[in-house]
Amino acid sequence: MTKPKQKVIEIKNISGKVNDGVACGSTEIIERAKDQNKSGVLDQYKKDYPVGPHDQPQSMCPAFGSLRVGLRMNRVATILSGSACCVYGLTFTSHFYGARRSVGYVPFNSETLVTGKLFEDIKESVEQIADPEKYDAIVVINLCVPTASGVPLQLLPKNLNGVRIIGIDVPGFGVPTHAEAKDILAAAMLQASKGEIQNGPVKKSSIERGGLPLITLVGEIFPLDPISISSMVEKLGLEVGAVVPTRQWRELYTAFEGSVIAGLHPFYTATFREFESVNKPILSSAPVGFEGTASWLERLGNILNISEKKIGMAKQSVLPAIKTSLKERKIGGTVTMSGYEGSELLVARLLVESGLTVKYVGTACPRTPQNKIDESWLKDKGVKVTFRSSMENDIHAMTEYKPDLVIGTTPVVQHAKEKAIPSLYFTNLISARPLMGKLGTGSILDVLGDAMNNGDRFKKMRKFFSGVGVDSTSGIWHEDKPEQKEKKLSIQGKTVSTSSKKESIKC
Fold this sequence. Notes:
This protein has helices at about 25-35, 40-50, 65-70, 85-95, 110-115, 115-130, 145-150, 180-200, 225-235, 250-255, 270-275, 290-305, 310-330, 345-355, 370-380, 390-400, 410-420, 425-430, 435-450, 455-465, and strands spanning about 75-80, 105, 135-140, 160, 165-170, 215-220, 240-245, 260-265, 280-285, 335-340, 355-365, 385, 405-410, 425, 485-490, 495-500. By secondary structure, it is of the alpha/beta class.
């Protein structure tokens, strides 16, 4: 059976203007932002997303997080306002990760930026596509330059023709990671939907549920994880409701119906604030591994005053299978791990329970109240935990601990391979798998076991490629090196003196 083709929504170059290449990411642009009407937004970001050792993100552009949340929702259009190079990079990355919709783009030049015409272009673009037959909402995202220039997305109408308009600023100089940018859009949508609920009856989600009290999940988790959690909480008389970020607008209403908000990913600071504003309790950590699942079920039951008997039944229904899975996949060896998805501490807990010695966990995300439990658990097990870790931190940990396996970001994995250390890219090979319950235990540990058995292959590859990419084969000519010695070549019996010095070619 062939898979039906998904409809492509075409929203291209709406305003018809041409970007003249206004630069972004400089100190100048940050100072400019402070003088514009964005001080309130940036001050809130500073509180919600405190920066680390670097004033610029070391991973992908943070705006990708907001873009990803919008593109995964049904009946939601997304428009970017920013430099052409930034828009190109973001849309390229989004399609690399499986987006099947085009992204709207409102270009600018110096004139439209300075005169305020850019805002009018954005407003006109929104008006052109605000069709309630096609969309529930339109998301407009200011990138660095429009944010720094004070383009006032807050002045856009909140609703056009029955289509919601969500305008957000996601500058790289105010949002450290793409994970936290997910939080910005998720929270903005929750805030809008909360206002709709408070103003009167709303259309509920068409997704059928069993009528039990709901638990709302927060985190961009693998699609099988909600199913695993549903089976865990069934014995408590609960079922999983919405998963935030949601796939459709109406699910945002369902999110507020949750008796408990399970903060599976800890960096959704603004999102949690929206739930706290209507007195919803936040449950931190996640049901990962044996101890993590047991603790999570106990705390969930205690929040809702569920009897010890029911909590015991829930634990008994899931823990033996997890214990067996861990026992069957016991792995030995030393691991260092890092990433920028926000689930690094949860994965580390699972690895420790599998028998691995985890020396170091680095996450680009910050320390929050929601990851306090996981941090404490890992430190008790002798794991060094670093929040807002930099690439330098992660590579230093690899050098210091000499692990049998490295899990990390692209540059860290590259560095590990150069050292012939088995390695896995966290984003594509770890975070893109189920993590909760028995399914998570089996999926992730199988991948790790296979990788650690490839140590000899990495050593053979290193020997085979020895010398490639270094010195004269690096492809880089250093003009500041001492004078090059002359070489003498023998050509057809004649001795020819040559200098290895080369003229630089500038582009």
